[in-house]
Amino acid sequence: MKPVYYENGKLVMIDQTLLPGEKILREYDDYRDIIDAIKTMIVRGAPAIGVSAAYAVCFAAKELAGRIEDPGLFLDALDQAAEEIKAARPTAVNLMWAADRMTAAARSHSDMTPEEITAMLKLEADDVCDEDIKMCRAIGRNGAELIEPDSTILTHCNAGALATADYGTALGVVRAAYEQGKVKRVYADETRPLLQGARLTAYELHEDGIPVTLITDNMAGWMMKQKRIDCVVVGADRIAANGDTANKIGTYSVAVLARHHGLPMYIAAPGSTVDLSTAAGDDITIEERDHSEVFGFGGVRTAPEDIDAENPAFDVTPHELITAIITEKGVVYPPFDQNLKKLFTTDMSVVN
Ligand code: MRU
Q1: Any idea which residues carry the catalytic annotation?
Q2: What is the pLDDT of residues 135-157, one digit of tens each?
Q3: Number of neighbouring beta carbons within 10 Å of residue 50
Q4: Which residue from 115, 209, 216, 257 puts its CA 20 to 30 A from 200's CA?
Q5: CATH class for the region spanning 146-346
Q6: pLDDT reported for residue 347
């Protein structure tokens, strides 16, 4: 299931705000509309946002090349558009990583005309997309090694095909382990306030015939206490240099519960989510979303009028609570500061 792909000159997205009730495809060829799609979460999930950002830079380049002939002025204007794209959401670093990769590619070809740079950028965005699928497959292979036979896995939010170019990170591990006959069942936290677990994770797994049981977020501890869960596998929006990991709000609570019950807490994420320039979790900007998301769901208000709410979209799980980080290059164990650096400073090439 590909949530975002390029076809016939347009970027096509499954509108994830409508799933699973309706599967509506939306088409984009203006980078400003892609920014809106990221903000409104028509596309969401760190790697899928990164892929969308890469193509958004392409559309910006095409528009700018139509009116700016001078390569220097063109590159400056492209940088400005990329900054607008990067500001769409603050936490998932894949967005910044992809936009920066695109502008760096453009600048490394400053001898070309704007039209030539635009053509080259389309190929670069295709690479971002294709590499993401390869990385998810490799994460799946590496993570499956950690899953014991007959496991019940808890996951939070959606780190599946819908959150990536295809296959998924946390659900990539689930899919690969399931193919090896190791997964008995997946417990999916519903993930308030936007219900990515109920609407997206349960939907994807059910479509694939992988046994899934939906629970509300506040049931996870009780399921662990009753020994119904063997390990936790979640995705990530940004992994700091020391291993502190930002992911969907509620992940931290799950990690605390996993530690209390002696369960492994695995993070599954590609190198594009590892941000060695951010030292620790305290340095990660946490997106605060509109409070209306907490007051109700689907346009139906469940809370009384005139009350206050909080709506941080992400939290940070401290590295001490993480058993291992599963990446396309291998499984990273503590000490994360040393081991992440070893794996991701020198060679960012993709594992096939
Ligand atoms: O707000 P969202 O739906 O974009 O948040 C998504 C998550 O937190 C995912 O768990 C994370 O991006 C990992 S996706 C492979």
Answers
A1: 237
A2: 999 999 999 999 999 999 999 99
A3: 27
A4: 257
A5: alpha beta
A6: 47
CB 89 within 8 A of CB 95: yes
**pLDDT tens digit string along 51-85?**
999 999 999 999 999 999 999 999 999 999 999 99
Domain map (residue ranges) of the chain: 4-137, 146-346
CA distance 116 to 61: 10
Query: What per-residue confidence (pLDDT) applies to 346?
Result: 57
- Please write the tens of the pLDDT for every residue from 187-230: 999 999 999 999 999 999 999 999 999 999 999 999 999 999 99
Atom number in ligand 1 closest to CA 160: 15
Index of the ligand 1 atom closest to the CA of residue 168? 15
Structure tokens at 100: 């920066």
Ligand 1 mutation target, pool 15, 44, 285, most atoms within 8 A of CB: 44
**Ligand 1 pocket, Cβ-based, cut-off 6 angstroms:** 44-47, 92, 157, 159, 163-164, 169, 196, 235-237, 247-248, 313
Tell me, what's the pLDDT at 337? 98
- Which ligand 1 atom lies nearest to the CA of residue 196? 3
pLDDT at 348 over 90: no
Nearest CA to ligand 1 atom 6: 45
Q: Where are the alpha helices (DSSP H) in 264-318?
A: 292-295
- Measured in Å, residue 8 CA sits from the centre of ligand 1 at 28
Q: Which pLDDT score is estimated for 349?
A: 46
Q: pTM to 2 decimals?
A: 0.96
For the structural domain made of 4-137, what CATH number should be given? 1.20.120.420
Domains 4-137 and 146-346 share a fold: no
Q: Count of CB atoms within 10 A of residue 149's CB?
A: 10
Per DSSP, the three-state class of 346 is coil
Sequence-distant (≥ 6) Cβ neighbours of residue 8 within 8 angstroms: none
Q: How far apart are CA 331 and CA 133, in angstroms?
A: 18
